[in-house]
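__Record contents__

***
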Amino acid sequence: MSISIRLSRGGAKKRPYYRIVVANSRSPRDARIPDQMASDIPLLPRDSPERVKLVEDRARYWLGVGAQPTDRVARFLDAAGIKERAARENLKKGEPGEKAKSRAEDRAAKLAEAEEAARAAEEEAKAAAAAPAVEEAPAAEEAATEEAPAAEEAAAEEAPAAEEAPAADEAPAADEAPAADEQAEG
């Protein structure tokens, strides 16, 4: 049987009141307690002397018998100067999880791609600005002259198609006429 010094909750909903008690470590949190040695009222300010009331001689007795305080109770005992507690550091507390790390890597990759695209656009703009404007004008005239023959060829191809279209319309009308004669005879 191991003895622990721990908190037992009391009070109403959203109005907690804790007692620092000595109990069997396997008993339920709010079970009957053989000894109560302090109280903690978390609704009071931290610096208030009424917040935690310890009975020092009972705390020292139970620690001498071999009772083990929980981490929270050990903090109270350390603050009261009864039992010194070694400071603990949780080095992984501020470290992000796996999903957060992968999202950060994805975000960094997207930012790198965006920066590369911006640099490429700046370089193209600098190259365009550095090239003389005189050379661009003949290039535009050449493109316009190349487009003109292409437009004439496209118009020439559409014209024969337009001439064939009425003939195609007349042919079905000729086919319908014999069908109408057959119906009249029948």
